[in-house]
Design a protein that fits this description.
mainly alpha, 5 helices, 67% helix
Length: 94
């Protein structure tokens, strides 16, 4: 089994609990994979806790605003539309 898959499996139950909490607040579109990506690329980008229980606590402490600030930033940075694909008539009101 691939190491990264094994690592994900170690946190899957906690990510699922957090995803269910988001879902109860009306945010069904957030998946456990989205939360895992948030942890790896944002939450633990500069410092990943050394102990498992600290990582679990960090997952369980994720707030809706924290996640959606990250998702908004990711959408702005990584989902950039090329200028050729943009409809400037909508922007300019033409």
């Amino acid at each position: 089994m691939e190491a990264q898959t094994q690592t994900f499996m170690n946190y899957e139950v906690w990510l699922k609990m957090k995803q269910e909490q988001f879902s109860k607040n009306g945010y069904d579109q957030v998946t456990i994979e989205d939360l895992w990506k948030y942890c790896l690329t944002f939450l633990w980008k500069n410092f990943r806790p050394e102990r498992y229980h600290e990582e679990v606590k960090a997952i369980m402490d994720i707030e809706l605003n924290d996640y959606f600030n990250y998702a908004s930033l990711e959408a702005q940075v990584y989902n950039v539309t090329s200028l050729e694909d943009m409809d400037f008539n909508d922007i300019l009101g033409s």
